[in-house]
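#random but structural
TW: two for the price of one
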Amino acid sequence: MGQQWFAIRTNIKCEAKAERSLENAGYEVYLPRKRIERQHHRTKAWLLWEFPLFMRYLFVSLPDIEADFYTLRRCDGVESVLGIPEVVPASVSENRVVMRPVPIPAKDIEALRLLQNDLAFDETRAAQIHRKEIGRTKKETTKMRFPKGTRFRTEVGGIPFVATVTNVNAKGAVEAMVSLFGRLSAMEVQASEVGKLEIVEEEAAA
């Protein structure tokens, strides 16, 4: 006997409660989560929070045959099972509309799990390093943002010039060469300043 996944809508701020209640009732439950990391503006300490990825929604696996939706709906924190309206004859004179639960392909749930395991939803330093958005050090991050050969516009004495990155030093500052009046001169710029300048795109090859 196979299994099918269904989306469950929870009561407000009851995702974790519904997850615990459903698991205690014997259901296989998947509540996608994301983590957010922020630095306290005063203490500079890093604070970590975890939230449901989809507010008020989680997923439950049920057997293909004889799925027990009755017990599921009675679990704490559960509001309803997502589905589509279906007209069911109630008597000769009238019909009634019920919600027919719609299964979610298992491959979609597995894809969501893989993304979560790969830190795709997290906004943390660890996730950014894993996704290669930043480096483990200031120098490494700067090298990733401004690799050797990157060109950027800057000003020297109020005159605009184009500089070319030659290195990122131990302090994490960008070292570059700029042509001043026909001579190449070295300059050092903080990475935060380079980011504020206009990066020059490489010209397309003819």
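TW: number two ↓
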Amino acid sequence: MILTWKEIIKEVNSWNIKIENFDEKNINTNSYDVRLWNQVLKYKDNTLDSKKDNEYEIINIPEEWLLLERWEFVLASTKEKFWSTKYTPLIHNKSWVARLWLFIHITADLIDTWYYGNSTLQLFATLPVKIYPGMKIWQVSFWETKWEIDIYKWKYSEWNGIISSKSHLDF
């Protein structure tokens, strides 16, 4: 079962859901808008290796905007951190994003219950597009869990901000 806007507010007020810098203006019918952080991560090599920690650079998004060129790929992060002991967060694109030919893949759209942190997202521009720090680009919904919850303790736990691939830890 998905929480509606009234239930999201109620659960935030009761601390069953935590959204850093919560603002009721960001509530939708059954989700909460989350914003783009002020940095993106860009890999340095054109060929990436899943067995190694690939080199990358962090690029600050200027207040005025950052242009993503056609076919450019970067990783980005939500500005907000969110967490719940009772619900499973699920992050989704805002519909207007695809209408600008900006494809966003959420690297893990189903957020583990008890995970607290930013979500890392992949941005892929099929046409040149400007992005802005703080723009409402994603939304998070909260889903009721049915059974016992295990605390998240995996390779991406306890990270903040944009996270590069940690696939090399699986080898």
